[in-house]
Design a protein that fits this description.
By secondary structure, the protein is mostly helical. The protein is built from five helices and four strands. The longest helix is centred in the C-terminal third of the chain and has 25 residues, at 129-153.
Length: 200
């Protein structure tokens, strides 16, 4: 486990940053943008967990959800490390996203769905603070997924497990937002295509 003895290094003052293998690249490089977005996603999940914390003592579902979100942050850190490493520098000992991670998310989605009413219409993001924040995390996850696809289309070597995990995680975040809102009796805002503005 690396030790962070200094937070500032001054090595990025010229607009470049280092990959795990030591290569210096622009901070605007697509790979940097991608793992930076994965970091942003983990931060958004952290805000959702902060909103959940007061509920974990009284709501069993909040406690279970917090455990899933904590695990998701760990997997995202593994994914960020993988994205920050060029293929030739990857080592077998490095933690990576695997098919078992996506399978775990599918089990979590199926479990949560059993508690939810079927969804026949689109819903708007919102609800309790934790639920609303999970919707924010979902949209960031979709952006991270798009950036991974862009890297693949540019010929970068990214594992299919990484892309699959982000796809499943965005689905899980959507379901988890509904799951915690349901537990807190927060009604869903159903999309009304014929909506009219309130009276002035």
């Amino acid at each position: 486990m690396p030790k962070l003895t200094r937070i500032y290094t001054r090595t990025g003052d010229g607009g470049s940053t280092g990959l795990v293998g030591g290569q210096r690249v622009s901070k605007r490089a697509p790979r940097i943008e991608t793992y930076g977005t994965v970091d942003e996603l983990s931060s958004a999940i952290g805000v959702a967990r902060a909103a959940l914390r007061p509920l974990t003592q009284s709501h069993e579902r909040a406690l279970a959800l917090d455990a899933w979100l904590a695990w998701s942050q760990d997997v995202l850190f593994n994914l960020g490390s993988e994205l920050a490493t060029l293929p030739q520098d990857l080592r077998d000992s490095m933690p990576r996203v695997g098919p078992e991670d996506s399978a775990a998310l599918e089990r979590a989605i199926d479990r949560a769905q059993r508690d939810l009413p079927a969804l026949a219409n689109f819903i708007s993001p919102g609800g309790a603070p934790a639920g609303a924040q999970l919707h924010v995390a979902r949209t960031i996850c979709r952006r991270a997924e798009r950036l991974v696809v862009a890297l693949l289309e540019e010929g970068e070597s990214i594992s299919s497990d990484a892309l699959r995990y982000l796809n499943r995680l965005s689905d899980a975040l959507f379901v988890w937002a509904r799951w915690i809102n349901d537990a807190l009796d927060e009604p869903e805002h159903i999309w009304n295509p014929a909506s009219r503005p309130p009276e002035a």
